[in-house]
Design a protein that fits this description.
The complex is a heterodimer of chains A (about 325) and B (about 650).
Chain A (H helix, E strand, L loop, with lengths): L9 H10 L9 E2 L6 E4 L1 H19 L3 H25 L3 E7 L2 E2 L3 E9 L5 E8 L5 E5 L4 E9 L4 E4 L3 E5 L6 E7 L4 E5 L28 E7 L11 H6 L4 E6 L1 H4 L2 E4 L9 H17 L4 E5 L2 E6 L2 H12 L8
Parallel strand pairs in A: 4-12, 15-16
Antiparallel strand pairs in A: 1-3, 2-11, 3-5, 5-8, 6-7, 6-10, 9-12, 10-11, 13-14, 16-17
Helix pairs in contact in A: 2-3, 6-7
Chain B lengths: L11 H15 L8 H16 L9 H22 L5 H18 L3 H21 L3 H6 L1 H14 L8 H25 L23 E2 L3 H5 L5 E5 L12 E10 L4 E3 L1 H5 L17 E2 L6 H4 E3 L5 E3 L13 E2 L3 E3 L16 H13 L3 H14 L3 E2 L10 H9 L1 E2 L1 H14 L4 E8 L2 E3 L4 E5 L3 E9 L2 E5 L1 H5 L1 H6 L1 H4 L16 H21 L3 H10 L7 H30 L1 H15 L10 H11 L4 H16 L6 H14 L3 H8 L1
Parallel strand pairs in B: 10-11
Antiparallel strand pairs in B: 1-4, 2-14, 3-4, 3-12, 5-8, 6-7, 9-16, 12-15, 13-14, 15-16
The chains are: A alpha+beta (about 325), B alpha+beta (about 650).
Chain lengths: ~325, ~650
């Protein structure tokens, strides 16, 4: 199974087979006995321990019916093992898609589970460190299931190993199988909380004019926040000693296209903050349905609007080489 | 690890399942428990179920009250028995403990503990009885066990209880072959692992002493004493003397076995093979009985270990009325206390008139026959000089009176004699080709030493010959309270009971009596007698593996029957695939049929027919038309052209 390369050493191949360390599965993976593990649950162990005590009692008192009773319950436990196995065996798993997420939130992946001619009950699907997702799978049905991993930083996150498990029918045995698809999702930078408002847009189709909003009406001022563009600071008020304010404009210019530029951010901001702020701005622009362009070192995204523009921009931010990588 | 969330409380459904399980565990024991135990233990289970939901969370009060209550119950049981750490008190305590634990059970963990306790309690019913009914009584528990475990399973949604019971029953049935294998192969023990508690099984059997009334007591019981299979023809009724305890010591009213004096230690009645039958003479024992019993000099069979369960053994007997007495001490069988003066005088007088011992005995038996003696279960009480009172005043007695008085008469005349107790008679079961001997067949007779040989004499036969030939029911007047089955009339009820006894016998023999010896016999019968333990283990492992494969396969076959339409459709797809038209993953049946019709227009109706039938079966509403559609699909698939024909047509 799988594209196991002939060069891999024996221990590595066994490790891969047992633990599915490398994302070597290609779709769809049909769970068979070579992938399914079964061990008793804590409850199963408790019940078996009880059966052992009962067996000792039956032996001591030479209770033939005691033996029979213990063995019949034992047979039930063994049949439950087979039922647990059957509940997993034959399930086909295929990768479907990775969703998107912002750093710090959960990144969801969609897998597709298909059953053959058998009803599956109480399947649990979980990525490493993620919450388990429970589902029932009727015969011949295909169901999407979403598993998620928690993310910390931005960038490309792989799904990692996914565990399918079940303790159907009696909760005495837990059967599980690992699948490891090469599925990865992009995690965008976390949008900066309390980011400064969007830089002023440009007039109409004249997208190449600079962000000065000289023709817009001054709507008012608000408190200055570090990072506000220098040309929008109410310098007069600063000179008067009245404090720091930023001018806000209103009018058609506010609805115009935006040029979001790494270079225009105040110097002194570190890479991640810049990316966070740009992310927040992309989201804000998208919210206000304003077309925008994005320029970060190495990437230049032309003006555009809509979901694909947003995804392109956010992905560029997400995949921006991190400071340590440079 | 993440911190574990607090376990969710038991749901209403889970509580109901647990309650059902507990009830199934407690119910079979109700007959064996005192009323107050039953009332408390089962009452608490019911209380939890009817308890309003807002009272579920145990208050501080209840958290204290319940342990105190448990301790109080333990003290109550201790007072009742006088001891606590033994089998019966512990079973009673466990019975109540189930209720107490159920009252305070909150989480799934408590639920699992209750499941384990209930399992153990249901084993306890076999301490008291191992009848067929006891086995049947354990079945509801098995079913509710599966339901409870499934309900306790985390994240389980409620399935209808009928469905749950059905799926548990399927699991139990699947496990039965494995259980059977283990039952047959699992090694049985010859001796208990730890000391057998002294309260294990005491039933009414012949004892090591006989006082007036003891055998007539026994005669009131219909219980089966033992059953016998004969290798050849069973002996005639007059020869069916099953020898039990030999009583040689007479204290003026009661008879006792001599061993009490010999050993100096009181022997317990359970050490006798008192229910073991043996005709008057046994040859040196053969076969497996030597392993479990010894034959004493006075031809009594003793078990080597206390008899606590049904023992099954083979024995050969020689049917003669006399056997050598060379090992016996004649003086031991001559001792008489100085009571019953009239009897002593009568005996000496009679012996004086007889020419020999044998003649004296014949005269005595004739005297018993001629005088107006009455054979009865209700002879009345004799206080002083009971033998005198019986022989000369009331002349009403049961076999123990006749045998006792007869031996006194012999000893008084200087003839060594002793009382032998045991069973006389037995009834062939027409179903099972075996003989049933009941407690009501208990009997006492005499043995006298004449010319160095012990000879059997039965004075009861002189008084009531029909007792020996035809059994107790025939010998006693109809007004006497004889056990029902001892009466001879072959009513339908009696025949029914004999059938039932036959079933019971097989049960006792094959299931309950499946001990070390039976296991050895069985292994010999299947040719495994020489097998070493590890070979048996390998055999068991291999058989278990085959069992697993078989269960998986059988289930798969059943599945494929259920989803016949899928199998048929797949075979049709395979056919077209072989002909070069592989169904695309996203292609539905109708679209696929349309594509096939495009390539092979001459068979378009066939393709449409199959696709339509399949699509309707698969995606249409369920209904009675399914069977017809399935046949339609079947014939449609059959009518499809072969892959080769398709291939030719494509060119």
């Amino acid at each position: 199974m799988g594209p196991s390369s002939g060069v891999a050493s024996w221990p590595a191949r066994i490790r891969q087979r047992v633990w599915r360390i490398a994302p070597a599965d290609i779709d769809p993976v049909v769970l068979r006995h070579s992938r399914i593990y079964i061990l008793p649950t804590a409850r199963g162990v408790a019940l078996m321990a009880t059966l052992v005590i009962m067996l000792l009692t039956a032996m001591n008192y030479a209770l033939s019916l005691g033996y029979a009773f213990v063995f019949i319950v034992g047979g039930l436990v063994a049949a439950a093992l087979l039922a647990t196995f059957r509940n997993l065996a034959g399930v086909a798993v295929s990768p479907v898609a990775a969703r998107e997420a912002f750093a710090g939130s959960e990144l969801a992946f969609t897998l597709s589970l298909a059953s053959n001619a058998r009803d599956r009950v109480g399947l649990s699907v979980a990525a490493q460190g993620g919450h388990a997702q429970m589902l029932d799978l009727p015969a011949a049905a295909t169901r999407p299931v979403s598993v998620s991993i928690t993310t910390r930083g931005r960038g490309r996150h792989t799904l990692g190993r996914v565990t399918l498990s079940t303790d159907f029918p009696l909760g005495l045995w837990r059967g599980w199988a690992y699948v490891h698809f090469p599925l990865a999702g992009v995690v965008y930078p976390a949008p900066e909380a309390g980011a400064p408002p969007l830089p002023p847009g440009m007039q109409g189709s004249d997208a190449h004019r600079s962000g000065h909003a000289s023709d817009a009406e001054l709507a008012g001022v608000r408190d200055y926040q570090p990072g506000d563009a220098h040309n929008r600071v109410a310098w007069k008020a600063v000179a008067r000693g009245a404090g720091w304010y930023t001018k806000q404009f209103e009018g058609s210019g506010g609805q115009g296209a935006l040029a979001l530029d790494w270079a225009e951010l105040p110097a002194g901001l570190d890479v991640e903050t810049r990316l966070s702020r740009l992310c927040a701005w992309v989201l804000a622009a998208e919210r206000e349905t304003r077309p925008f362009s994005l320029r970060v070192p190495g990437t230049d995204i032309a003006f555009g609007q809509g979901a694909s523009q947003r995804r392109t921009a956010l992905s560029a931010l997400a995949l921006f080489p991190s400071a340590s990588a440079r | 690890m993440k911190p574990r969330a607090p376990a969710p409380p038991l749901s209403r459904l889970q509580l109901r399942w647990i309650a059902a399980l507990l009830a199934c565990a407690q119910a079979p024991l109700i007959l064996h428990m005192p009323a107050w135990i039953v009332a408390l233990g089962s009452g608490l289970v019911v209380a939890r179920i009817v308890m309003p939901e807002r009272l579920y969370a145990p208050t501080a009060l209840r958290r204290w009250l319940l342990p105190i209550f448990a301790v109080a119950t333990a003290i109550g049981i201790r007072t009742q028995f006088g001891y606590f750490l033994a089998r019966d008190p512990c079973v009673e305590f466990l019975y109540i403990l189930l209720g107490i634990k159920f009252i305070e059970a909150r989480t799934g963990r408590d639920g699992m503990l209750l499941v384990c306790l209930a399992l153990f309690l249901s084993l306890a019913q076999f301490f008291y009885t191992q009848s067929i009914f006891a086995a049947l009584a354990a079945l509801p528990l098995l079913l509710s066990l599966g339901g409870t475990l499934a309900a306790l399973r985390s994240g389980a949604d409620a399935r209808p209880w009928r469905e749950q019971l059905a799926s548990t029953a399927r699991l139990v049935v699947q496990g039965v072959p494995l259980a059977l294998l283990l039952f047959v192969l699992f090694p049985r023990l010859a001796a208990p692992l730890w000391g057998m508690p002294f309260d294990a099984g005491a039933s009414t059997v012949l004892s090591d002493s006989m006082s007036p009334g003891s055998i007539s007591q026994l005669s009131l019981s219909d219980a089966v004493a033992f059953r016998v299979d004969f290798a050849g023809q069973p002996p005639p009724p007059s020869q069916r003397y099953w020898r039990g305890p030999v009583l040689a010591r007479f204290d003026g009213s009661g008879w006792h076995t001599a061993y009490r004096l010999q050993n100096g230690t009181p022997s317990r009645s359970s050490e006798f093979v008192s229910t073991l039958p043996r005709p008057a003479v046994s040859d040196p024992l053969v076969g497996p009985i030597n392993l479990i019993a010894t034959l004493s000099y006075d031809q009594q069979l003793f078990a080597r270990t206390p008899v606590t369960q049904t023992v099954r053994y083979t024995q050969r007997s020689i049917l003669r009325d006399s056997f050598s007495a060379r090992d016996d001490n004649p003086r031991e069988n001559l001792r008489l206390p100085r009571t019953n003066p009239r009897t002593l005088a009568f005996a000496q007088d009679m012996r004086g008139r007889a020419a020999s011992d044998s003649e004296y005995i014949r005269a005595l038996l004739k005297w018993f026959r001629d005088e107006p003696f009455v054979y009865t279960l209700a002879p009345g009480q004799y206080d002083r000089d009971p033998v005198d009172a019986f022989l000369f005043d009331t002349r009403r007695g049961f076999c123990e009176h006749y045998a006792g008085a007869f031996v006194v008469l012999l000893r008084a005349a200087g003839i060594p004699a002793r009382v032998v107790t045991g069973y006389q008679g037995g009834e062939m079961n027409p179903d099972g080709e075996y003989m049933i001997v009941r407690q009501s067949d208990a009997h006492a007779w005499a043995e006298a030493m004449i010319d160095g040989e012990w000879k059997r004499f039965d004075p009861t036969a002189a008084v009531a010959p029909s007792r020996i030939e035809r059994g107790l029911g025939a010998a006693l007047p109809a007004s006497e309270p004889v056990p029902y089955l001892a009466r001879l009339e072959m009513t339908w009820l009696k025949s029914l009971r004999l059938h039932w006894d036959s079933v019971n016998y097989q049960w006792q023999r094959g299931v309950v009596g499946f001990n070390l010896d039976r296991q050895r016999d069985f292994l010999r019968d299947v040719g495994l007698d020489g097998a070493r333990p590890w070979q048996l283990v390998v055999l068991a492992a291999a058989a278990s593996f085959l069992w697993g494969l078989a269960v998986l396969t059988v289930v798969r076959l059943r599945r494929s029957r259920v989803d016949a339409e899928i199998a048929l459709w797949r075979s049709a797809c395979r056919l077209l695939g072989r002909a070069g038209l592989v169904r695309r993953q996203d292609e539905g049946p109708l679209a696929y049929a349309a594509r096939a019709s495009g390539r092979w227009p001459q068979w378009a109706p066939s393709f449409q027919r199959v696709a339509n039938a399949y699509a309707f079966l698969r995606y249409g509403p369920p209904g009675p038309a399914r069977g017809k559609l399935l046949r339609e699909l079947e014939t449609g698939v059959d009518d499809l052209p072969s892959a080769r024909a398709l291939g030719r047509a494509a060119k």
